[in-house]
Amino acid sequence: MSAASPQPDRSEERPDAGTDSDAGSAEVVFPARVAIVGVGLLGGSLGAALGRRAPETHRIGIGRSARRLEQARKAGLIDEWRELDDRRPLAAELGIVCTPVDRIVDDIRHLAECLDDGALITDVGSVKGAICHSLPAVMPRGVVFVGSHPLAGSERQGFEAASAELFSGRVSVVTPLPSTPRRAVDAVRRFWQRLGCTVVEMTPAEHDHIVARTSHLPHVAAAALTCLVDDAFRDLAGGGFTDTTRIAAGDADLWLAILENNREEVVEAIRELESVLCEVRSALEFNDSDRLREILKLAEQRRRRFEALRSRSTAPERNAPADDA
To answer: What is the predicted pLDDT for the residue at 30?
Structure first.
């Protein structure tokens, strides 16, 4: 009933871990200027977190709406802003793209064209394969992309829901390719750690396999369950229904892009869930109490073990993906 999953490198960053020989002794310098593309929930929270944890860093917000960007500046989430179609040179050592997954590749490419040699770009997308493998051929020389996915969020949207502590104690997955310079990977790891994250490193394929089951499938299941219950049943919808379907309130277009960009893994995860549901249905149809109890007991044990492990961890459960202002 459980699919085998790849085993990622879960080592936390330390000064002598995974660095190039020429980078291992390099002085650790946090970026002085950071560009945030998409100042929504995650982008706004990045700005707030930088303001609290790295107040010396200048934050440049980039987005489609001048009005919304100015509101984010007045809210103290960014220090200055420019619109997304502004192609003037941009002085920033690090760019972070926080737009929906179906826009991330284009937004990274456009941002890279504005940055100087030596700049780094990362993202917050909850699908990594489609993004990471599309970029090497289109990135300008001298600008390096390293994929990221901080497992933090909410079903709420917009920078009004931003929190400076959104990333504190959370896991951020970093997904380099074999060709990615180690110096760049380590710099992105340090960035997320500065914001309070525990960093996990794995391949884009490993990431997409795992989050299809821990994030994408749960959203599909919550959406499907919500579709079964109409307003006539609302008075009898208890805590179980409310807790199970909370994430179904996430933005539909945002989730459409996520599911389509991780199509193969999500389809396979749905098949795995269907297999378990078929076992439950069969046990009920044939009055097989032993098999039904076995399934329920396995679920109980795994959930209790999950809670026990999580209570010893600093990483809370992830709720939802990035959104955009």
So the answer is: 87
Q: Which residue has the tokens 């291992």?
A: 24
CA distances in angstroms from 284 to 105, 228, 299, 300, listed in the order given? 47, 20, 17, 18
Per the structure, the complete domain to which residue 203 belongs is given by: 1-325
Q: Which residues contact 256 (CB under 8 A, 6 or more apart)?
A: none
Q: Report the pLDDT value the prediction gives residue 321, as an integer from 0 to 100.
A: 43
pLDDT of residue 172: 97
Helix, strand, coil shares of the chain as percentages rounded to 5? 45, 10, 40
Starting at the earlier edge strand, list the strands of the sheet with 144-145. 80-83, 58-63, 33-37, 94-97, 120-123, 144-145
Q: Tokens in use for 124?
A: 């917050």
Question: What integer pLDDT is reported at residue 310 of this predicted model?
Answer: 81
Closest CA to 110 of 75, 160, 81, 145: 145
* pLDDT for res 29: 65
Domain CATH number, residue 311: 3.40.50.720
Question: What is the spatial distance between Cα 86 and Cα 67, in angstroms, rounded to a whole number?
Answer: 15
What pLDDT was estimated at residue 14?
32
- CA separation for the pair 178, 182 (Å, rounded): 9
- How far is the C-alpha of 15 from the C-alpha of 138, rounded, in Å? 32
| pLDDT averaged per 10 residues, the chain (length 325) | 42 35 44 97 97 97 97 98 96 97 96 96 97 93 96 86 94 97 97 96 98 97 94 86 92 95 98 98 98 97 92 52 38
Cα 81 vs. chain centroid, distance in angstroms? Answer: 24
Q: How far is CA 123 from CA 94, 119, 188, 243, in A?
A: 11, 14, 10, 29
Distance between start and end Cα atoms, the chain? 40
Q: What is the pTM of this model?
A: 0.85
Count how many domains the chain has: 1
In this structure, what token pair is assigned to residue 3? 């699919």
